[in-house]
Amino acid sequence: MRTITRGAAARALGAVLLLGVGATAHAQRAVDLDAATITDINTALDAGTLTSVQLVTRYLARIATYDQRGPAIHAVIARNPQALEIARALDVERKTKGRRSPLHGIPIVLKDNYDTRDLPTTGGSVLLEGYIPARDAVLVQRLRDAGAIVIAKVNMSEFASSGAYSSLGGQTRNPHDLAYSPSGSSGGTGAAIAAAFAQFGLGTDTGGSIRGPATVNGIVALKPTHGLLSRTGIIPLALSFDTGGPMARSVTDIAIALGAMTGVDAADTATRRSEGHAERDYTTYLQPDALKGARIGIARDFTGFDTEVDWVVESSLTAMRKAGATIVEVRFPKWMLEAKDAWYTAVRFPEFPPQIADYLRNTPAAYPKTLADMIERSRGLSSISANGTAPNASRWAKFVNELASGTTDDFRYRSVRDHALPMMRAVVNGVLSANQLDAIVYPTQSVKPERIDVTGGSTAPDPMNIANLTGFPDLIVPAGFSDNRLPIGISFLGTAWSEPRLIALGYSFEQLTRARRRPVTTPALPGEAIVLR
Description:
With 533 residues, the chain is of the alpha/beta class. The chain is built from 15 helices and 15 strands. Strands 2-4-3-7-9-8-13-14-12-10-11 form an eleven-stranded mixed beta sheet, with helices on both faces. Strands 1-15 form a two-stranded antiparallel ribbon. A two-stranded antiparallel sheet has the order 5-6.
């Protein structure tokens, strides 16, 4: 008879616990939580080696370990106390009725400008502290209907503008290096997803606010075509440019999340344009060989400003060529590049005062109702409060500029909206068409990430608002790292409604390069790996 030592018995018991009831050691196949896609998680859920309760518990453990303690990322602004209860109900539903969708029991986080009927929606501001809307934003409701579990609201640039800081949530830090910014305005979502606090999250993008945080936190993200996704129930910044969008650690998860959110919303007239273009399943475009035969433009207007960024870009282009893509050098007209930032401001600033007033009309009487009210109240907040909230002078000062920027009846606003923006769409479409391009790529940021304590910022050109000014989609995929080990991303820009092609190209690039890495400050916790069978 074979004798089993106490140590061997303990190791055997640990293996059984890891594998789950009914699994055997020779059949074990596991993946890190950080690397698991929604497809992987559904494999484990279907196999019975994982439950949604266990998955939520693992993500909540990471938040508890790394957000307020340890590296103190400060991404989470409010946790959902009902998350585990919801997960239990969804586990029962899965067993008795089957799963609603691939998102059944999947934990997500939301930028704190998405309305949630069970958690405060503040825009990161003490001016809206404690406000709980009557209903969910349309995108939130669609995700919940698909079975997703909102486990937290995350910090953001206050009212979606300026740096990754808010008067309510304070400073969020980049999990790759705590001295660096996670960028704004969706910095809380970017940091939370990079640190694996949830499977995916939602951000919003008006002038690069999904894509900046994606590149500097080393994750995947999509700024969709304007009108593909509803904005109802999202605190506005400038509706001519505003859009929500998914942020994740893989192109696979972006494709799955996107399909659950599309569809016309009667309350958002922009979504009517998506009829005939929106799809419910983008996973069919996850094609590893999509780069073969593709024609990709490289926008040279945005290289040459940072040797380390350029090195990553050239390495990426080399990889695309080896995969069978043809790389075409392109440039945008100089006059467009010189004018685009002024055009952006000419629309963005005048739209905020009336649009934020429309949103605030639905809040209780205790909250401000206009931008003028917000300015008046902010001027009475000059000290740190008992619960730790603090002034956000840089954002509050911008309130004054927004209020004084003119109206949407002003000729300066209307001339840009009605003439400059269509002209810009024509130019970008022209570059794509004339060169027969599937997409244009560029470094999402022309220079490597910045430290939190740096003021003034870079003078390098910002390519990101081209997608906002045109309304075109832009997919960000991790491409590499700078010398000081900060992520660098690459953008795939296409014409309107080209999300399927961008997802295919981005997935092909992701599978070829596999450039994403786990942040050094938020390592794996014991026992959090996902056993697939």
